Amino acid sequence: MQTIILEKPGHFCLCETDMPPPPQPGETLVRIRNIGICGTDFHAHRGRQPFFEYPRILGHELSAIVVDPNGASHLKEGMPVVVNPYLPCGVCIACRRGKSNCCQSLQVIGVHCDGGMREFITVPSENLLPAEGLTAEQMATVECLTIGAHSVSRAGLEPGETVAVVGAGPIGIGVIHFAKMAGARVVAVDVNRSRLEYCKEILGVEAVVDAKENPVGQLCEITMGDMPTAVFEVTGNKDSMEASFDFVSHGGQLVFVGLVKDTLRFDDPHFHKHELTLKSSRNGTKNDLMSVIGAIRDGHVDTRSFISHRCSFRDLPSQFDNWLLPESGVIKAMVEIR
């Protein structure tokens, strides 16, 4: 079968590899249809992804078709499925409390172990979610959108509150979708004018803020002095993450969705005076994935404008560097295996 391997930073290899062995009990063999390209993949390609080893087969935003259900009762041959890439241990304190997304020894397909940039892959049957009614491309956006859905669930938003989403990339767009579904008034904050225009014209946010031009003042004006009651920081940029403490209202909450391999600092008197609630949001749960599948199926999330760039599997190694360029305007890139 054809496989793309990231042998080292900056170097993909398209090669022939052996088919996976027959599935063991509790496993299912699937054929990959589409692969969504994530910031994690870009970071890995650049050599900047934490907790990463080379060589690695990338690919964790996956749509697939069941080839051999191997007795799994919820699956049948030919069924379209979303691959849940999270492999929790099931026994640690987080797993025992139903928080498998932050398992102490969590493995993510395509990050900590080899993923779906290949024609066939064997995965645990319980990690396959039936997704009839979704296109193959839609299915490959589910995991990405789940990151935003989980963060909104973590925040417990109330209808009518004003929230700011800092970072209008793919994850931030997911946050915007599900914050709006929760009834919030959403303000998008970014340094990229084209992404801010996308948020205003396509996603219908209440307002946009250019982070290069006094974002605190702009947010203060938009909220008539109140400031947003919830701020989702999605950039994974140290300076932006530290600055976001100043974006939150008194009594509000700051949710770090983005991840940076660094130490963050904040002013404790400001933090204490505002009685801020600081949260992190990591990955998503099976229930979050199912919620996103339902939201797409019911028409609450339109992925047509979200998928901005496409290429074939064979063209990926030559196309990937172009997607790294800011001028490419990538929102979500999608790879198709025919």
Structural description of this entry:
The chain is an alpha/beta fold. It is 27% helix and 25% strand. Strands 3, 4, 5, 8, 9, 16 and 17 form a 7-stranded mixed beta sheet that branches. Strands 12-11-10-13-14-15 form a 6-stranded parallel beta sheet, sandwiched between helices. A two-stranded antiparallel ribbon has the order 1-2. The two termini are 12 Å apart.
According to DSSP, the number of beta strands is 17
Mean pLDDT: 96
Largest sheet: 7 strands, mixed
Low-confidence stretches: none
Give the termini distance in whole angstroms: 12 Å
Question: What is the global morphology?
Answer: globular
Computed structural class: alpha/beta
What gyration radius follows from the Cα positions, in whole Å? 20 Å
Helices, by number, come to 11
* Secondary structure: helix percent: 25-40%
Quick description:
The protein is α/β, with parallel strands linked by helices. The chain has helices spanning 39-46, 93-96, 136-139, 142-155, 170-181, 193-201, 215-222, 238-243, 268-273, 286-297, 316-323; strands spanning 2-8, 11-16, 27-37, 61-68, 80-83, 86-87, 107-108, 120-124, 128-130, 162-166, 185-190, 207-210, 230-233, 253-256, 277-280, 307-312, 332-336.
